[in-house]
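User: Can you write out an input/output pair for a complex, sequences first and structure second?

Assistant: Here is one pair. Inputs:
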Amino acid sequence: METEGKKRVWEEYQKEIADDHYFYVRSCIRQTFFPGSETTFLKILQNDLKKDVFEDARHTTCTGIGYHTDIVPLETTMTVIARHFALMTEAGYVNIIPSCVTSFGLYTEVLDTWRHFPEIEAKIREYLWKATKREFKVPENLVHTSDIIYKFRNRIKDLSKVSLINKKTGLPLNVVEHIGCHYSKMFPQSGVGGAEFPAVLTGMIEAWGGTVIDYPERRHCCGFGFRQYLVKANRGYSVSNSKKKFESMQPYQPDFMVANCPGCSMFLDRWQYTIAEMEGITYDSNGTGIPVLTYEEMAGLVMGYSPWDIGLQMHQVSVEPLLDKLGIEYKKEDKYLGSNGQNIGEPQKPMFLIV
Amino acid sequence: MAINSQHIVIIGGGPAGLEAASCLGTAGYRVTVLEKENQTGGKLLIWDKLFPEFRNSDKVLNHLSNGFKTNPPQILTNAEVVSVIPENGQHRINLSDGQAFQADTVLITTGFKLYNAEKKEEYGYQIYENVITSFDLEKQLKTGNPIRIEAGLTPRRIAFIHCVGSRDIKSGNIYCSRTCCITGVKQAIEIKRRLPDAEVFNFYMDLRMFGQNFEELYIEAQQKWGVTFIRGRVSEIAENKDNSLQLKAEDTLSGRPIKMSFDLVVLLAGMVPEPRTVEIGKSAALEFTSGNFLAGLDSHISQNETNTPGIFIAGTCREPLSVAETLTDARAATVKMISWLRENETSHKKSLIKRDND
């Protein structure tokens, strides 16, 4: 594989990423699946990088899940997003950073639609005014939160305590990077590195010492795909898509996967448990599965944060084998202790997946 | 032989330029050919065999060089034209090294450039070792050496992908490059001739076999050589662990998605205008087609004349053409040029007589 060719592609897809003063909008599902991720992002930006990040508790869903399942009409979605822009404007910010890849894709789609059809923007402004008496300015800079971590990857490296290197062998860890479809497949120009060879996660992994695996089904959907999961009868299709990816990456013996989409992190993690229970197989050599991290969790580990403080106990596939490779010390008995020191309860043990 | 004093400059010493130089020289005109490379012949120097007869390209090159027996043109190589400026009823042709030529009329035959297949990122050209273009394959075939993939092995399964950068609004080129279809058929047969045990596939939208004996060659490819044609565009190529290539496409005839592995994938990259053609055209205030080729004055009756009097165009600088069509087009252009020069000569003489009387 010619890396120079990839670099030429990456050069085509560079975008402006604001340096500071961010209006942060959370993800509906990330808060539920991996609640430590967003907290970790805020800690890194505010405490370590000393950036100004503001969030408003009145922010709501972007309606992305409803929109992509044909439940919410586009005009409603646009009006809800216009309200988010209004909250940003009222707070005095111009840079908006959604935590969710689907929100980012949807915001990008809405702004692109308004650029092409100003009359639709005018109509949405009217709807928002009638419904809420709010007005807004369109953001000057819209990027995904993974773009922010990508931008500051070298600063994070300077502050890091851990490298993505196997402590025992001294070799770089083999990492599977997975980009959410809505990050750049709809608007390649909106993603760092474009849609075919995205550089946003690769840039982080390589800056922090790891090696990226390019496997045949790298571009394939994680399996979430909204409709194939949300309609219960379709869930077999969802699992089979994830399975296709796992089988494709298995020969490369990945040490872990990292994703920038809340749904992808969730399904790449949970479906390994499901497939293990269904077929009695895992895609690693010792039966524990391939750990899956969000990019904030990966950054948190690199920064030396406690794995239990960043919420790694919420993962279905155990992260301990990865922590051991990284040489990160942890107390097994602290895994299920809440921030108040009380036990939050342990999940039931799976039949096949070793935890 | 009486030599006409009127001076013709031909920009580009490829098939169109050389054929036109031969015709104009035979007609008694003083011709200068400006070629930017260090030898004339254009892309004929790269092509191995020409469709549909598999004629060796050297034979056409020999024909072109044999055309200079009487009144040969002045040929300058390494002569890169940067602009053509209409000036006092003539044209000044400026070169990048500072030289300039005056001409009564100019013929632009600057040819085409291959579409940069890197732009179709989903195919991984220049990223995956065994993804090449039809241009790369032609160079390999011309060496006469056995066909090998990057690791030095003989490919057992080869795919050709049609319409790479042609008829593709996403790539910016909505037009058809015309010759890629027959090139895919020709190269598939060429591979089967050299590697009879290889499996060869063509992935296409539709096959435009417009020329004489093209359709026959397409049928021969299937019946005699066993080349498989799949109607469907390829969505993506990825590299397997052993450097073979995983290809995903839709077979639109069976209505099913397909996933196959290949040792070698050949991209049939289309034709795009040479950047310098665009620069020269702009300097002479010429008009362009929607595909940014040089535009003729009329799409039916004056394809070789331009909106700037005295400047003519021929060959693939004005639209995608085969070698045979290029030669025909060059000859057609010379007829128009000679007519124009004769008319211009008469009016030029009249203006001189009028000036003397005054």
